[in-house]
Amino acid sequence: MKPKYKHNNNITYSCKYHIVCCPKYRRKVLLEAVDVRLKEILALVAIELNSELIEVEVMPDHVQVLVECDPQFGIAKLVRY
User: Fold this and answer.
1) pLDDT for 50-68, tens place per residue?
2) pLDDT given at position 2
3) pTM for the model
4) Annotation: CATH topology of 6-80
5) Residues 6+ apart with CB under 8 A from 61
6) What are the CA-CA distances from residue 17 to residues 3, 31, 48, 74 (Å)?
7) Start-to-end Cα distance in the chain
8) Residue 65 CB-density burial (10 A; 0-12 exposed, 13-18 middle, 19+ buried)
9) Alpha-helical runs (H) found in the chain
10) Which residues, other chains included, contact 48 with Cβ-Cβ below 8 Å and sequence gap of 6+?
């Protein structure tokens, strides 16, 4: 299987980032409707910032996100939004 590369005017890339976010003191607050809304928000942000949300896993005390974004845009800016 050939890797899938993306490109823009300057570069060709395939940068995937694994992000883990935890609530303060790892309290179990990501339950029921909160996890559904969080996934919706993450999908909207990914579309808005031209990145691809590959996978999202919401646990009661943390969130794991696998995302692909343009390295010139920067993962720090994506996480900030």
Assistant:
1) 899 999 999 999 999 999 9
2) 63
3) 0.85
4) Alpha-Beta Plaits (3.30.70)
5) 22, 23, 26, 27, 28, 29, 30
6) 16, 24, 17, 11
7) 33
8) buried
9) 33-48, 75-80
10) 81
- Rounded to the nearest 5 percent, the helix, strand and coil shares of the chain are 30, 30, 40
Q: Identity (one letter) of the amino acid at 64?
A: Q
Reading the block at residue 41, the tokens are 């928000």
Contact 13, 52 (CB under 8 A): no
- CA-atom Rg of the chain in angstroms: 14
